[in-house]
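Marked as duplicate of an earlier ticket. Keeping the data here for the record.
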Amino acid sequence: MRIFNDFKNFSLGRTMKGQTGFEEKRKFTRFALPLEYWETEDSCHGGLVGNLSEKGLLIYSIQDIPAGTDLGIKVFFSNGYRIDAFKVFARVIWKGSECQSGWDGYKYGLEFISLALEDQIKVETLLRNHVRPEDLDT
């Protein structure tokens, strides 16, 4: 569970309600899901999903990827008692640097280019049934 807690702290997906009285209302769901991505089949890298929508996602990575780059992406998630994944092809729309808790890397906004129907259903189900990390007992 320690790895999941590290992801929770990294993604900053918690609201500040109770500390400041302010509750953040997000348009897109925050996630802390591992992913792998590639530009070519022989260049696979790891990253973390920050948020997800039906049209794209925000990811974190230590790799420097130029805007406009097309990527293959495989996002892993828990589906009951097994690990599942969806695969998507996406384009880097924007890039920003990210420094927090001693971690230096980049965050990227990606727009889906191609998503198979089976994977689209997985994304929609994941969005509909998502349990936020901060709602879980640790």
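See parent ticket for discussion. The two ends are 8 Å apart (CA to CA).
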